[in-house]
Write a structure and sequence with these properties.
The chain is of the alpha+beta class. It has a single domain, classed as Gcn5-related N-acetyltransferase (GNAT) (Aminopeptidase, 3-Layer(aba) Sandwich). It is built from 4 helices and 7 strands, in the order E-H-H-E-E-E-H-E-H-E-E. The chain has helices at about 15-25, 40-45, 100-110, 125-135, and strands at about 5-10, 55-60, 65-70, 80-90, 115-120, 140-150, 155-160. A 7-stranded mixed sheet has the order 1-2-3-4-5-7-6. Helix 1 (about 15-25) packs across helix 2 (about 40-45). The longest helix has 15 residues, at about 100-110. It is globular, with a radius of gyration of 15 Å. The model has no long low-confidence stretch (mean pLDDT about 95). The structure holds coenzyme A. The site of coenzyme A has 21 residues, from strand 4, helix 3, strand 5 and helix 4.
Length: about 160
């Protein structure tokens, strides 16, 4: 794969961020969301992802192939030092190191922005996700059993930190 460039996202990237997010929704391995999002949703999301809540994109040959963000974990100020992670890679670019490259840079951003911990929610059956998170050093905190119903099936959700 050509060299990856990881940089801060701008509003120009929102169409690609949306496409990649909708792939993750469609694949049913990444999120409990089931409805495809639209551009207005992504624009509103981006408005609350400024300053500390960074969004990074990974580009290959000038095309955005993945994105990662630090999200607000809680509105309680006691949790201000904790960020929640999202990370999504275009289907055709998964398992090629894009997720690792994004996380490496996002972790630096998190430290710069005074977060002392990143947490994430994932599905135990998300193999790519599990491999990435274990490689980086996330630990399983808990698996919530039957945490949600998606497409008529109970879904377990794992929290990692
Ligand atoms: C989960 C996701 C972000 C991981 O990103 P990725 O770019 O696919 O992951 P990477 O290629 O960086 O792989 C990370 C590690 O997993 C392992 N790995 C990845 N794919 C592998 C494969 N097919 N076989 C064996 N090991 C593999 C490797 O150890 C790799 O480490 P390495 O770079 O030292 O080889 C990505 O697959 C994705 O977007 N999936 C859909 C959306 C999603 O699930 N998001 C997460 C929501 S919780």
């Amino acid at each position: 794969m050509p060299i990856l460039n990881v940089r801060t996202a701008t509003s120009e990237d929102l169409n690609r961020i949306l496409d990649i997010y909708n792939q993750g929704i469609e694949d049913r391995i990444a999120t409990l969301e089931v409805e495809a999002k639209d551009f207005d949703y992504m624009t509103d999301w981006f408005k609350v992802h400024q300053n500390r809540y960074t969004v990074l994109v990974a580009e290959s040959d000038g095309i955005v192939v993945g994105w990662a963000s630090l999200n607000r974990y809680s509105h309680r100020c006691a949790y201000d030092g904790i960020a929640d992670l999202s990370i999504y890679v275009d289907r055709t670019f998964r398992s090629k190191g894009v997720g690792s490259a994004l996380h490496l840079e996002l972790e630096k951003e998190a430290r710069k922005n005074n977060f002392y911990k990143i947490i994430l929610f994932t599905f135990p059956f998300n193999e790519n996700g599990q491999r990435l998170y274990q490689k980086i050093g996330y630990r399983e905190v808990h698996v919530f059993e039957k945490q949600e119903v998606m497409d008529g099936q109970y879904i377990d959700v794992m929290i990692m930190e």
